[in-house]
Amino acid sequence: MITCSAPGKTHLIGEHAVVYGEPAIIISVGKRAYISAEKSESVKIYAQDINQSGEFSISELKEFAEKLQQLWDNCFETKDFAPLYSLLKNEHLGHIKAMIANTMAELDINAPFSLKINSNIPIGSGLGSSAALSVAVPKVLSELFRKNLTLEEINQIAYKIESLAHGTPSGGDNSICCYGGALWFKKGTPNVIEPLHLDFTMKNFVLVFTGIPKLTTGELVSNVRSLDPEYRDMRIKQLGAYTYEMRDCLTEQNFTRIKELMNLAQELLAELGVSIEAIDEIHNAVKSIGGGAKLSGAGGGGYMVCYHEDLQLLKKFIKELGYVPEQVELGVEGVRVEK
Ligand code: PMV
């Protein structure tokens, strides 16, 4: 039996704008998705954290991969991914089945295996639960079937898998789950993926959960896309400018401006319609005590990332608002084989 794991992530800045070619700064977090695999007589999946299992034939998975690819192509043409999202929602273990079917097709795997998934990353909360799996699935199957994939190859498959689930993602989420640490990510041909060395800065950040989002990442990205282009693009450009500035501020350890940039980014994300009342409430409160707070990821709920030089004050304040400040390790290792 082989076990691999990949971390979750948080966006320090640049989410949504990254879809339009602006940069993002994304940091891995110390919550991981674990997948164990072994050869078996049929393809069996057991998703422990959602307590669901399924058994599939190789031919069924092959057909599913082809069907998804066709549907994705159609959706891409019509610029409407709703049919793809609804297929995955309505299919038993749809999302994970898509990851496995696609990886098998990419790696030309024709032999059965069983997979056990155990993830500590909360699902659909902006912490990269799906991206971590989209990286860990090709990694564990590459190990099991001795395909010797490089990190770049794993990341390419992960991006395809993420596209099947989210339409046209930027590729930032799967990249950080693959490489770990902290990344400067910019979508393009090719993508710019540069490690950032932030070890000194990360102690005074906390994550705060604001509730399960009502909309998926794909739906939130689509909502932003359907805004008036002039209104949207002004804000996307400004988010991009703040992200460049954030990179300099991280290097200079200019925390006064780092906090301001987090707050300014949050306010633009709210104008793009991806914030909710709870996020606005925490943002305003943390800002009022001199901290920085913003949503992280697609928004609509999920996790926020907050910063204050006085960590105890920040935690106390968040607790008083009725939320739980979570201090998680940041900048952890990317996808790996577990010993
Ligand atoms: O909420 P998450 O973890 O799915 O993050 C999505 C980040 C976006 O920028 C909104 C989308 C993307 O593809 O980068």
Explain what the structure shows.
The structure is a single chain. With 339 residues, the chain is an alpha+beta fold. The chain has 2 domains: 2-197, Ribosomal Protein S5, domain 2 (2-Layer Sandwich); 205-326, 2-Layer Sandwich (Alpha-Beta Plaits). 46% of the residues lie in helices and 22% in strands. It contains 11 helices and 12 strands. It has helices spanning 58-78, 82-90, 94-107, 129-144, 151-166, 172-179, 217-225, 229-252, 255-271, 277-288, 311-320; strands at residues 2-13, 23-39, 43-47, 52-56, 113-119, 182-186, 192-196, 205-209, 292-295, 303-307, 325-326, 336-337. The strands form 2 sheets. Strands 1, 2, 3, 4, 5, 6, 7 and 12 form an 8-stranded mixed β-sheet that branches. A 4-stranded antiparallel β-sheet has the order 9-10-8-11. A hairpin with a 7-residue loop joins strand 9 (292-295) and strand 10 (303-307). Helix 1 packs across helix 3, helix 3 (94-107) runs parallel beside helix 4 (129-144) and helix 5 (151-166) packs antiparallel against helix 6 (172-179). The radius of gyration is 20 Å and the shape is globular. The N and C termini lie close together (11 Å). The model has no long low-confidence stretch (mean pLDDT 95). (3R)-3-hydroxy-3-methyl-5-(phosphonooxy)pentanoic acid is lined by residues 15-16, 18-19, 126, 128, 169-170, 172-173, 217, 221, 297-298.
